[in-house]
Every structure is written in structure tokens, then in C-alpha cells.
Design a protein that fits this description.
This protein is an alpha+beta fold and about 450 residues long. The protein has two domains: about 240 residues, Cathepsin D, subunit A, domain 1, CATH 2.40.70.10; about 170 residues, Acid Proteases (Cathepsin D, subunit A, domain 1, Beta Barrel), CATH 2.40.70. It contains eight helices and 29 strands. It has a 19-stranded mixed sheet that branches. A hairpin with an 8-residue loop joins β2 and β3. One of its GO terms (molecular function) is aspartic-type endopeptidase activity. Belongs to the peptidase A1 family.
Length: about 450
């Protein structure tokens, strides 16, 4: 039976009303990857000063280098919990990572100054025992690569091994043999193993979904030496490089990553997050600081910050502009793997002089390797000078006093800076970065930061 024209008219009129007044569904927010930042339990054999001395030694010597290209995917996000490792005698922050299929859990150093991601690993005839890989009782088991269905060694006969992978060795018994590496660090530490492709399991931002982050370049380390890795199972490379975990993850999750570092002396259960993709903590921020993120081969694998100067109590310090000029051998980087802030000598001398002048009258003490230390046991109501770091674009970092006047022993505080010979790049270490949320927007080359308790509540 044919429909009448009046019926058709009212039918389409009613349909248009529904379309007009139906609420539009908001676009779903991108998922987020967060990694928890993990802190180690205290080593009772170490005094606070012993720990600080170890941090200074490692910071001065660390400057490592190392260089697969992930295919871009739709943006999303995920998070990993992170904690401080200060009480293990290390100034680094750790993150738990689930590697392989089925997944095995490991504790890795979260390091923006390193590009190679590796784990202590056993594969075939290449065993990794306690003698080779360390015997920290808190460290997780070595990665049993034979048990992972997604572990695929890269052959030494491949173009990737011969041309693109840093620190790869020229030895190649057969074209199908694994691509070996010998990755050295400037503190004398080293790690030997071979390259492979592997997957890690990530939990997306809704807290329920899990997925595999595939095609990660992973170092299977069968032997390592030196103090850098005693408290961890390996390194999560967050530096700027085609092979780093950060580059692989940001290519699939919004082109950016962020982290918030809890106080390095905070309680054992204090955790924060390493996030890939949009970070929901920024949305609640009343005032987010923003400046240029400097990405250049001269700084790789580090991320440069566009520092233009420092001030103390509002007085801009007279530091030569060349100190912050990358083209003239200077500049400043943010390094989550270094603890103290290291300043090129022309800046160091001006900064410690300006701070120490305002602390005259407080008894000085000697605590190697620091130049300015104070007996704080009988200090009354004193106004500590306020340090500020100024960036291009009027961004300003106002660190808490404890980030530059640090506790090194009972009743002793020191100016927490070390110097590096000029010309050299200055380093903003993780103690100076603590209790701030930092976002590295690689896609747009922007650095954002804000003061934060580093908790989501």
C-alpha cells in the first residue's frame, strides 16, 4: 500500500526534530599510558653523605650516547608508575616494565639521557647469571628471552645492524647470527649483548585496557659491569633517538611524554607516573609554564631547555649569554638520570657566589665534594634566598629550596650544584626537577612544566 504524502511529510519532520535536539556525543578522550615511578628501599649501610657523594661521582661521569623507526599509529596514551631510588644509594628513578609474551616484569632506570632500552637477559647459550648481571636481592629475575613468543633477534647480516644500530660490533660469524653490541658509559659502566625486536605490555589510561607495544628495539644484555645498574634490571631509554623507547611510544601516543618526580627523599610508597600521550594532570593546572624544547644533533640524545638566565631573590645574575647558547658549546639539558644540577663554570661561579653571600653568618662546614655547606643545627628563623631559572617565552622555574639547598647529612645542608668545565652543556638534574610535572612535546618541540605534588588526587 503506497504511503500518503502527508505521512511522509510528518515522518521526515519528526526525524529532523530528533536529529536537531539529540545531544551530540563528545569525542572520546585519547587513551593515556602512565608508568609508575618507583623508589627503592633504604640501604642501611649507606649514610646520606655517602649517597650524595655517589650521586656527584655518577653525575660528573655520565654522558652516554647511543641510535629502527616505528610506524605511526592513532594517538592515545598510557601511564607507568615511577619511584625514586635514592635510598638504594642511587639518584635515579625506576619504572616497572612488562617485557615479552607472556610478560615478565622488570625494574628499569627511567633515563632521558639514554636511548638504548635493555634488560639483563638470558637467551640460548647466552646466560646471564648473578655474577654477570648483578645480585641485588630487590632486582627482578633476568629476562628469559627463550620463553617469549614475541622475541626476535636482529641478525648481524642485516642492513639495520650494519648501518643503523649504534655500538653494534663488526663480528658476524654467520649472516643469521645476532647483532651484538658493546654499549659503554662514561662512568666506566658497560653492557654487552645483542639487539632484538620485542613487545612490552602497557595499561591504557582507563585502567582496564591492555595492549602490546610492538616492535620495540631491545637490548638483550648478557653481561654488564659498573655501579650504574646494581639496583636495576636495565634501562628504559627515554632520550631523543630513533631507537629509544620514548621515540617508539610517542610515535603511537600523541607525540609527547611527561613525568612527575616525587621528592627524592619521600616515603617508600610515594609514586608518580611516566605518561605517554595527553597527561590529565595538566588540564587541572591554573598556570602551566611553556618554552622551547631544543632538539638538535648537537644535544642528542638529550633534550635541551631554552634557558636564558638565572636569578636570586629577583636579581638577574650576570652570566655570559654564551653559557646558554648551544651553537657556542653551551646550552642546558634536562636529565632524569642525573641527580644534581651541573652548571658550566661561568654560571656555577656566579650562582654559588650569589647564594652563599645571602647565607653569611651560618657556620660553614666541609663536606666533600661540595664547595658550600652549612651547619644547620642551630639556624633560627632565616630567609633562604630564592632561586629562579628563566626560560625563553617568559617561563620561569621556581624550585623549592630543598632542590638547591639539599640535605647531605644530619644537620648539614649544601648548595646542590657541581661545576663542569667551560665550554660545556649545563644539566638540570632530577633533584631540581622534583615536585614538578614536565611534558616533552616532541611533535611540537615544546617543553611544559608546572608545580605539582605528583599525585593524581
Amino acid at each position: 500500500m503506497p504511503l500518503s504524502s502527508s505521512f511522509l511529510f510528518f515522518f521526515f519532520f519528526f526525524l529532523l526534530l530528533l536529529l536537531h535536539f539529540s545531544p551530540t556525543r563528545p569525542e572520546s578522550e585519547p587513551e593515556t599510558l602512565r608508568l609508575k615511578l618507583i623508589r627503592r628501599a633504604q640501604d642501611p649501610t649507606l649514610t646520606r653523605l655517602d649517597r650524595i657523594r655517589g650521586l656527584v661521582h655518577n653525575d660528573r661521569l655520565r654522558r652516554h650516547r647511543a641510535a629502527a623507526s616505528p610506524a605511526p599509529s592513532p594517538p592515545g596514551a598510557f601511564e607507568m608508575p615511577v619511584r625514586s631510588g635514592a635510598y638504594a644509594g642511587t639518584g635515579q628513578y625506576f619504572v616497572r616494565v612488562r617485557v615479552g609474551t607472556p610478560a615478565q616484569r622488570f625494574l628499569l632506570v627511567a633515563d632521558t639521557g639514554s636511548d638504548l632500552t635493555w634488560v639483563k637477559c638470558s637467551y640460548g647459550s647466552r646466560k646471564c647469571g648473578k655474577k654477570k648481571c648483578g645480585s641485588d636481592p630487590d632486582a627482578e629475575r633476568v629476562f628469559r628471552a627463550d620463553r617469549s613468543r614475541t622475541f626476535h633477534p636482529i641478525s648481524c647480516g642485516s642492513d639495520l645492524c650494519r648501518n643503523d644500530l649504534p655500538f653494534s660490533l663488526t663480528t658476524c660469524p654467520t649472516p643469521a647470527s645476532p647483532c651484538d653490541y658493546d654499549y659503554g658509559y662514561f662512568d666506566g659502566s658497560s653492557t654487552q649483548g645483542f639487539y632484538a625486536n620485542e613487545s612490552v605490555t602497557i595499561a591504557l589510561s582507563d585502567g582496564h585496557k591492555k595492549r602490546k607495544l610492538k616492535g620495540l628495539l631491545l637490548g638483550c644484555t648478557s653481561s654488564s659491569s659498573g655501579p650504574s645498574f646494581d639496583s636495576s634490571d636495565g634501562v628504559l631509554g627515554l632520550g631523543h633517538s630513533d631507537i629509544s623507547f620514548a621515540s617508539h611510544a610517542t610515535a603511537q601516543f600523541g607525540g609527547r611524554f611527561s613525568y612527575c618526580l616525587v621528592d627524592h627523599l619521600s616515603p617508600k610508597n610515594a609514586t608518580s607516573y611516566l605518561t605517554f600521550g595527553p597527561n590529565r594532570m595538566f588540564r587541572a593546572a591554573p598556570a602551566v609554564q611553556e618554552t622551547d624544547l631544543l632538539i638538535t644533533p648537537k644535544l642528542d640524545p638529550y633534550y635541551g631547555a631554552a634557558v636564558i638566565g638565572l636569578s636570586v631573590d629577583g636579581e638577574v645574575l650576570r652570566i655570559p649569554p654564551s653559557v646558554w647558547n648551544v651553537g657556542k658549546g653551551g646550552g642546558a639539558i634536562l636529565d632524569s638520570g642525573s641527580s644534581l644540577t651541573m652548571l658550566a663554570e661561568p654560571a656555577y661561579r656566579v650562582v654559588v657566589s650569589a647564594l652563599s653571600r645571602r647565607l653569611v653568618g651560618i657556620p660553614e662546614v666541609k663536606e666533600d665534594p661540595f664547595e658550600y655547606c652549612y651547619n644547620w643545627t642551630r639556624v633560627g628563623n632565616i630567609t633562604v634566598p630564592k632561586l629562579a631559572v628563566h626560560f625563553a617565552g617568559r617561563a620561569q622555574l621556581d624550585p623549592p629550596v630543598k632542590s638547591y639547598l639539599i640535605d647531605v647529612a644530619a644537620g648539614v645542608k649544601c648548595l646542590g650544584f657541581t661545576s663542569v668545565a667551560w665550554p660545556s652543556v649545563s644539566t638540570i638534574g632530577n633533584i631540581m626537577q622534583q615536585e614538578h610535572l614536565w611534558e616533552f612535546d616532541i611533535q611540537n618541540r615544546r617543553l611544559r612544566f608546572q608545580r605539582s605534588t605528583c599525585t593524581t588526587t
